[in-house]
Amino acid sequence: MSKQAVATKAQSPATKDLEVFVGEWREEGQAFDSPFGPAAKVTSGQTWNWLPGRHFLIHRLQGRLGEQHIACIEIIGADAPSQSYSVHSFYNDGKKNVWQLREGDGAWTLSGDWKIEDKALKVRCTIGFNDTRNTMTAKWEYSNDGSNWQVFWDTKLMRAVT
Fold first, then answer.
1. Structural domain spans, the chain
2. Which residues of 103-121 are buried (b: 16+ CB within 10 A; e: fewer)?
3. Which fold has domain 3-159?
4. What angle do CA 33, 39, 43 make, to 5 degrees?
5. Segment (H or E) for 115
6. Which of 41, 102, 136, 141 is in Cβ range 3.0-4.6 Å of 157 for a Cys bridge?
7. Average pLDDT per run of 10 along the chain, which is 162 residues long?
């Protein structure tokens, strides 16, 4: 079998839409007072890279939330039954979560539940890209009931020039 046939066989067509995230990004924004913590400035460096074979996208975040160090690693892959992507997140404070990521109407939506003490809040992040795909916006919201949403993070990411 030729090298080209092997490479084509290894790639996952279900993950090609994730290519928009690939690269290195610099994030700046604001966290607002919420059940997740007090208001603070948000800064981070983030990378999205393919695991060899292009079936999974690896996202890494290192940054600051005010004076606090924040970090996470995420593994993103296609979830064919739900026609979305599953996002498995692992945080530097020992927490972990599983999110669903979907594309639609020109935006991406990351959604799931987040436990704080004994209560689960609904969380969603709406991600948009500018026309050149060099700027990404991320608006994080939470809800107690899935109907009334409150913004708790609002950030902008700029693609790093390499």
1. 3-159
2. eeeeebbbbbeeeeeeeeb
3. Lipocalin (2.40.128)
4. 135
5. strand 107-116
6. 136
7. 43 83 98 96 98 95 98 95 94 96 94 91 97 95 95 97 70
